[in-house]
Design brief:
122 residues; 5% helix; mainly beta
Length: 122
């Protein structure tokens, strides 16, 4: 079955960096879009960045453009989110998810990981 396992979260000071990983299994990696979403306490879940595994096309939310970079390793079936210049407002639980492009863009992908906590605080 489809499995997505996130790792790499933690506590970091403002201006610091973290790299999240999403290890995928149980589906043909190249056929799907992988997205990173986040949810802060008391806020709605939002899409952060997506990548289409087949050709590497990417999308970034305006709030993270220029600071976050999404990439994928089609051999390891893993997607990464490099987060630089982190801000307190980046705090939240980060989830990776996968489905066809339309579902990921709509924020309703079928398959989700368990999430990893990112806390940006001094």
């Amino acid at each position: 079955q489809v499995q997505l396992v996130e790792s790499g979260g933690g506590l970091v000071q403002p201006g610091g960096s973290l790299r999240l990983s999403c290890a995928a299994s149980g589906f043909t990696f190249r056929d799907y879009v992988i997205g990173w979403f986040r949810q802060a306490p008391g806020k709605e879940r939002e899409g952060v960045s997506f990548i289409r595994s087949s050709d590497g096309e990417t999308y970034y939310a305006d709030s993270v453009k220029g600071r976050f970079t999404i990439s994928r390793d089609n051999v390891k079936n893993t997607v990464y989110l490099q987060m630089n210049s982190l801000k307190p407002e980046d705090t939240g639980v980060y989830y990776c998810a996968t489905d066809r492009l339309s579902a990921v863009v709509a924020g309703t992908p079928e398959y989700w990981g368990q999430g990893t906590q990112v806390t940006v605080s001094s």
